[in-house]
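Possible regression after last week's pipeline update?

I re-ran a chain I had predicted before the update to compare outputs. Posting the input and the new output here so someone can diff against the archived version. Not blocking, just want to make sure nothing changed silently.
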Amino acid sequence: MKKTLIVIAFGCGLICGLWANKMVKPVKAEVAGMDSYDLKSDYDFKRAVRYIVEDCKVDGTKIRC
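New output (post-update):
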């Protein structure tokens, strides 16, 4: 009985996971035509992040709070 419940729970989780993957579409975010790689090296974008994220330190690609 216990094994049957585990198999049913696993199956339901697998079906829900596959269903959710089809519902969520991949996204591509761009700012002024720049992708994430371009934004990492853009001085104005880094300055804006530093201004918005107070009490944190932006070091390269990482934000430490």
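Follow-up from reviewer: compared with the archived run. The two ends are 49 Å apart (CA to CA). Marking as no regression found.
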